[in-house]
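Problem 12. The chain below contains 215 residues. Write out its predicted structure in token notation.
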Amino acid sequence: MTWHRIARAQLALALTDAGPDAPTLCEGWQSRQLAAHVVLREHSPLAGAGIVVPALAARTERAIEQLADTARSEDGYRDLVARVASEPAGWSPMSWAGEQVNLVEYFVHTEDVRRGGGPVPPLALEPEHAEALWRSLVLRASMFYRRVPAGIVLVRTDGVRRRVRRAPSGHGTVVIRGAVGELLLHAFGRGAASDVGIEGARADVEALRAVLPTV
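Solution.
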């Protein structure tokens, strides 16, 4: 099963339900800016290069705003969401990324849209979909938590756990508990909108929250 295709459809549906001017968890972006970001990332690699190259960030932001401006109307927004729903061309690097990159990207942005206006029930995930997200999280967790001066153990609601960062000398370990989707949102810096439990010595928990706030 290629779960990233299902996740893409979920993102397009969330954008459609939200409308063009809905708030998102991405600071300063409404849903049309988020949709423009996804389209540029996949369909215009040069315009979207600032996503990964800081020196080009201003150029990318301008491109996002220009594309988002075309989606102020109902018809314009519908066309933009249709581009989000469409697969990138074969020459696009994002067409090669598949499950490894796009699955997580689409899931997080779907929740950026769904939770932008406040708490909502978690997105319903098939067990296999959740497992695919868990594999991606574990694979990349050392990068997400690299600036945290403490050990990190992730614990799913079904009891499955994984140590993703060993405690540096002189520091303890923090345990983060939650459903797979909530753990992923926390790791991606959406802690304030995620439903996770955090356990550990006060100093270590505060060190984690200094890097990835939960309020």
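Discussion. Residues 3-114 form one domain. Students who got a different answer should revisit the alignment rule from Section 12.3.
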